[in-house]
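pinned: reference chain
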Amino acid sequence: MFLLSTSFFCQVTLLSCMGQAPDFQTNRMRFTKATISGFPRWDKDGDGWIVLRESTRAIADKANQGDEAAAIATLHEVLRGTVWPINAIGLDLVREPARRPIELPSWEGIFGRMAEAVNARKGNLFGPGAPKIDGIRQGREGDCYLIASVGAMAERNPNRLRALFRELSTNQVEIQFQGIPIQVEALTDAERALAASSGDQGTWVSLLEKGWGVALQKIRRESFGNPLDRAGRGGDPALPIRYLTGRKAISRQILLEDGASEIMGELDFTLRSAMEEKRIVCATTDRRALPKGLAPNHAFALLAYAPQTRMVTVWNPWGVDYHPQPGLGFRGGYETRKGRFSVPLSEFIRIFDMVIIESARRVGDD
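pinned: its structure tokens
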């Protein structure tokens, strides 16, 4: 059977997936130059070190633009990392990479990706045909639970998603989260470096991401911190489903000891009805060994289900392509394009440990 669960999920780091940007030496020179230039402004107490409190303030500062924005976003990502043993950065660590702890990733590689995001075309709120799932990519924030939910909504009911937005001015948008209006200002360059993107679809994904962080701060009554970082602390897809749709979400854990036939029978019925009614469905992985190309502790969107073949179409919010080596079978992974891949239901239950489904019941219904 399925069991109700309140487990939380977050995204693993994207560094190993994305790799380093090209032209490493050029990135090193740009990163060093931009950091030396911006450091005196970022170091508010003048002690010669940048700490998380200071980088959090700096990424929200519109004065940081271009390479300086990419550089402070890079330092911010290093400082907020939970597995990297560093809590303060001085210019010596920027100028002399050999002095950095060996566990740290290449800052220049991170900077290259940040600079690409900063220099990407901004566009309007919605580009032609938006919102749609193709082109969405999760950024540096650990909010796969949110982006998976948004991707599923863009695929299943894009008009409902678009109706959440209202432009107030050239720099501000209002987004409705379960009837709660959240006013969001345009992202700074540094925030754009960290945020999710939607290709040529406009700025709606990154604005929704920032707006969700503001909403969480209101819900949790928090007064400090960057909204993007708040959204990126990980979470359960059930919460954004609730606030995006105004409907309750049902979380069901997959327990293999209950028997594959019983689990697949229940899932077959659940997915048929959910897809017919265009409801949001997400699934999550835990720490078990997974096929190549898939990440543990990560949330995915379910886009389609074919009852005749019992094939499930799944979407990874990283939006990446993956091409498995032939002959490796289940462990080799699945052909993936723009995050989409198909998996038999019999293998789906071995990969995912939780299914989260938008229900027909509205929030507040008894």
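why pinned: The chain has three domains: 2-9+246-362, 16-119, 144-243. Confidence is low (pLDDT under 50) at residues 1-8, 11-21.
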